[in-house]
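To illustrate the input format used throughout this study, we show a single complete record. The first block contains the structure-token representation of the backbone; no residue identities are included at this stage. The design step must infer an amino acid for every position from geometry alone.
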């Protein structure tokens, strides 16, 4: 709230200053009152020296001079106006300084009030936080006590229920068929072949005898299967030995045939070598007796055709 007041006061002071500047410009800085030299006005030099309007000397005729350099007929009036303007400007500056000082004092006062209000608010907030913390601590402590009492009561109730449930379970086990050793309770009501696993007390002597008989039959069957397998293995072994013997005999025959073939091939190669040698000797001694000379080779490729 105080910050908004300071902002509003600052905006109002800025608006007042802008309004005063605008009024000064409208009153004192008009276009007709400016003293700057206008480069676009060709008669500016003549306007600086107005006509001699106040001299009514009867000696001056119509052709007399009306303007002299350095002559100022309204000097006293101008000096008075300048002093009035200076006095007004000084008064305005004093007023503006006084107003600025008042504004600064008012801003300092508002700043002090804001700081005091913030300190007061911080103190109030700290006291409120402390009271809230104390209230929360007491509420938490009471809630913890209530929760601890409820938890203790709940544990007591659960323990009591657990004790009652254990007592009922023990009583049911004592009075049930599980500890009475009654074999009939294991029979299924819908299917006589099925038994109830959780009530089954074991097999009867008849069931044990039937199982032993079945196991004995299984042993006889396994012995017969083992003997049949041994006979089959012996048969396979004899067949394997016979096949190995036959393979060895075939390998011997193959080696003999290979040896005979190598011997025949060697004799054939020797005979063929002898024939080739005789043919070569015949060609060299009878057919190829004249050796070609260099003139024989030069007779070829002697023309372009």
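Output of the design step:
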């Amino acid at each position: 709230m105080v910050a908004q007041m300071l902002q509003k006061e600052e905006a109002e002071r800025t608006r007042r200053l802008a309004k005063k500047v605008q009024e000064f410009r409208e009153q004192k800085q008009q276009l007709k009152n400016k003293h700057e030299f206008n480069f676009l006005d060709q008669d500016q030099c003549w306007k600086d020296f107005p006509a001699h309007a106040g001299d009514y000397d009867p000696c001056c005729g119509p052709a007399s001079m009306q303007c002299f350099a350095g002559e100022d007929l309204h000097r006293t009036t101008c000096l008075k106006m300048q002093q009035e303007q200076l006095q007004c400007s000084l008064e305005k500056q004093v007023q503006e300084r006084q107003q600025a000082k008042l504004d600064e004092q008012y801003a300092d006062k508002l700043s002090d009030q804001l700081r005091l209000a913030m300190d007061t608010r911080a103190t109030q907030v700290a006291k409120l936080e402390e009271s809230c913390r104390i209230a929360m601590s007491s509420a938490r402590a009471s809630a913890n006590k209530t929760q601890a009492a409820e938890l203790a009561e709940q544990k007591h109730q659960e323990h009591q229920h657990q004790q009652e449930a254990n007592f009922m379970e023990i009583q049911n086990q004592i009075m049930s068929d599980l500890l009475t050793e009654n074999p009939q309770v294991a029979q299924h009501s819908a299917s006589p072949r099925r038994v109830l696993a959780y009530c089954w007390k074991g097999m009867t002597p008849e069931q044990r005898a039937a199982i032993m008989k079945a196991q004995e039959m299984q042993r006889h069957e396994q012995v017969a299967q083992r003997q049949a397998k041994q006979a089959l293995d012996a048969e396979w072994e004899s067949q394997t030995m016979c096949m190995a013997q036959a393979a060895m005999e075939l390998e011997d025959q193959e080696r003999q045939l290979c040896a005979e073939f190598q011997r025949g091939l060697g004799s054939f190669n020797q005979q063929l070598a002898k024939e080739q040698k005789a043919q070569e000797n015949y060609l060299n001694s009878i057919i190829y007796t004249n050796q070609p000379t260099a003139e024989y080779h030069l007779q070829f490729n002697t023309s372009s055709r």
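Structural context for interpreting the output: Residues 75-175 form the longest helix (101 residues). The chain has a mean pLDDT of 79.
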